[in-house]
Structure formats: structure tokens, C-alpha cells
Recover the amino acids of this structure.
């Protein structure tokens, strides 16, 4: 989303997903992250999220010719007429035939509310600029130019730098699969045991010669620390559940592994927010998940609290802080 600089991202990954469930719930996750729609119609039905997309090359190839395929699609979907123009010859036939159909729609009095083309192969930067020129000259300057074809954040960023005129992106394989991180290194470690007689948690710790494997004992919670003036995240503070903090006092934070990395927050310069939300209490589920689009709205708000230095694609700033017990000074 960040690389697209405000352009819409469509989730196109079902056919590349690693199983049906991954396709459905991957689409859900993509929508939460900020996609404007998914091509997965079942996910759209299940989670009440927008369904968006175009047609396949096989649609074009099933007709006697490209123009007939475009006309038929436009008749079926006049309010969402995005035509795939690279089946045979993008600039030689695809874009000219799309323009011809758009002219026919306009002459027939059909409102061109959401229409355009999709590029799925070739030099996307060059083709998009040439297609934009052809569309503008024909009087269709507001036509959407969407692109697909193994896109990821780095390719989108590169196309933006090259001046590509693409304003809608369909991302499939690299969105629905974990290409850059195929395995998740998270593990379960016991941190505390509830003593049924006293009702108190007994802290437990795992020791190891590998520093990163040493656990933080005790029944913990997480409080997010924000800069009071900018609203940006300063740190996620890991602390014990019963610890009390006063925002009118100084707060010393340090990295849990590289403990010499410290920062001291002045009184009144920060705010704290509890992140942990109970899901089960006394064996009963007390949490009800909001709708996907509500979660997306919340997620967008949280993304706005990140510093730009943390959102850059190359060498983003990574900060992880922990606060020791009674660290308010």
C-alpha cells in the first residue's frame, strides 16, 4: 500500500494461494491491510468486502476476436468495465479495441463511471505511458490503467519512479504467499503458571546460551507508547499486568537484548495505551471480531502512527523496547 502511494491495490491471489483456506483468509488479511477489493468472490460473500477484478485471457480467446470479447464484457459489466488488453497485441489491437468499445458505450449513453484497461505483461512502464497517451487523445483521460503480472512492493515502487501511468494494481502471488519469509520462527514458551490456591501467577523462565531464546517471566501485558505531540509510536512497552505507570513521570525504556540502547521520556511527553484485549475469561469467549472493513479502518489508523522511516522499503528503522519492572523514574 505504501509503495503504491495511495493507488488502489486489488488482491488477485486465489489461484496462487497454498490451499483453499489460505486463499480465503489470505484475502481477508489483504483487505484488513488496506486492499480496495479482492477477486475472490467467496471471500467477498463471507466477509462482506468489495469484490473487484477484470476478466482472464481465456475470456478473450473464447470469442472469435478481441473486439467481440470486449463488447460482450462491456454489455455484461457496464459499471465495471476494465478490459484486459494484452492477449494479442497491447498497443496494436488491445488498447485501440478498448477505446472503440468505450466510444460505443459513450455514444449509446452508457455512463462511464468505472472503466479502463489492464496490462498483464511486457514493459509495464512503457506500455502504460503509451496507453495513457492513446486514451487521452481519444478523450478518455479518466480511464483506469491497472496492472498485474507478479507485482510486489519493490516493482511497484520502481514503476512509480519510472513514471508509469498505472493507478490501480492487482497483486497476486507475492501478496497471498509468504515469498520473502516462508517460515514463521515464533515458538511457544511458558511465562507463568496460575496458582489456583492463591490466585497469583508464578513466574517461569527459560534460560539459554542463545540470548534471543531467554524468555521474560511473569504474566505480562503490552502498552503502546506514543509521542504526545505527533501521535507517532515510540515503543511497545512489555510489562507485568499489575504494573502502574504515571504519564506525568519520566519513563526509561531499553532494548531487551541490546540493553545499552536506552531512551528516557520526559514527563507529559508521551501517552500509553493498553493493547491486550481479553478473548477468553473463565473458559468463555468474551470477544467478538468486528467486520473486516471495520478492522481495515482501525488498521489504517494504526499505520498512520508509524514514522515514515519505519515504512520505507529499504533498511526501515526497527525499534523494539522493553520497560523493566518499576522503571518509571
Amino acid at each position: 500500500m505504501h509503495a503504491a502511494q495511495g493507488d488502489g491495490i486489488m488482491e488477485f491471489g486465489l489461484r496462487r494461494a497454498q490451499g483453499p483456506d489460505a486463499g480465503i483468509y489470505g484475502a481477508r488479511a489483504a483487505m484488513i491491510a488496506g486492499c480496495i477489493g479482492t477477486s475472490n468472490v467467496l471471500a467477498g460473500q463471507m466477509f462482506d468486502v468489495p469484490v473487484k477484478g477484470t476478466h482472464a485471457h481465456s475470456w478473450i480467446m473464447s470469442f472469435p476476436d478481441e473486439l467481440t470479447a470486449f463488447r460482450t464484457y462491456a454489455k455484461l459489466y457496464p459499471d465495471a468495465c476494465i478490459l484486459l488488453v494484452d492477449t494479442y497485441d497491447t498497443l496494436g489491437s488491445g488498447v485501440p479495441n478498448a477505446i472503440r468499445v468505450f466510444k460505443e458505450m459513450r455514444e449509446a449513453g452508457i455512463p462511464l463511471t468505472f472503466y479502463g484497461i489492464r496490462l498483464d505483461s511486457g514493459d509495464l512502464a512503457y506500455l502504460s505511458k503509451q496507453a495513457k497517451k492513446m486514451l487521452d487523445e481519444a478523450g478518455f483521460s479518466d480511464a483506469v490503467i491497472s496492472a498485474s503480472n507478479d507485482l510486489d512492493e519493490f516493482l511497484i515502487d520502481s514503476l512509480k519512479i519510472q513514471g508509469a501511468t498505472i493507478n490501480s494494481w492487482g497483486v497476486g502471488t507475492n501478496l497471498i504467499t509468504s515469498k520473502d519469509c516462508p517460515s514463521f520462527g515464533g515458538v511457544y514458551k511458558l511465562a507463568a503458571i496460575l496458582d489456583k490456591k492463591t490466585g497469583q501467577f508464578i513466574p517461569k523462565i527459560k534460560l539459554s546460551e542463545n540470548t534471543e531464546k531467554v524468555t521474560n517471566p511473569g504474566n505480562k501485558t503490552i502498552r503502546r507508547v506514543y509521542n504526545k505531540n505527533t501521535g507517532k509510536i515510540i515503543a511497545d512497552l512489555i510489562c507485568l499486568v499489575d504494573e502502574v505507570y504515571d504519564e506525568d513521570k519520566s519513563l526509561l525504556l531499553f532494548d531487551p537484548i541490546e540493553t545499552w540502547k536506552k531512551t528516557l521520556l520526559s514527563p507529559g511527553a508521551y501517552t500509553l495505551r493498553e493493547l491486550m484485549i481479553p478473548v477468553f475469561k473463565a473458559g468463555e469467549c468474551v470477544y467478538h471480531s468486528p467486520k473486516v472493513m471495520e478492522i481495515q479502518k482501525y488498521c489504517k489508523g494504526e499505520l498512520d502512527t508509524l514514522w515514515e522511516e519505519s515504512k520505507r522499503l529499504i533498511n526501515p528503522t526497527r525499534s523494539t523496547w522493553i520497560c523493566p519492572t518499576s522503571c518509571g523514574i
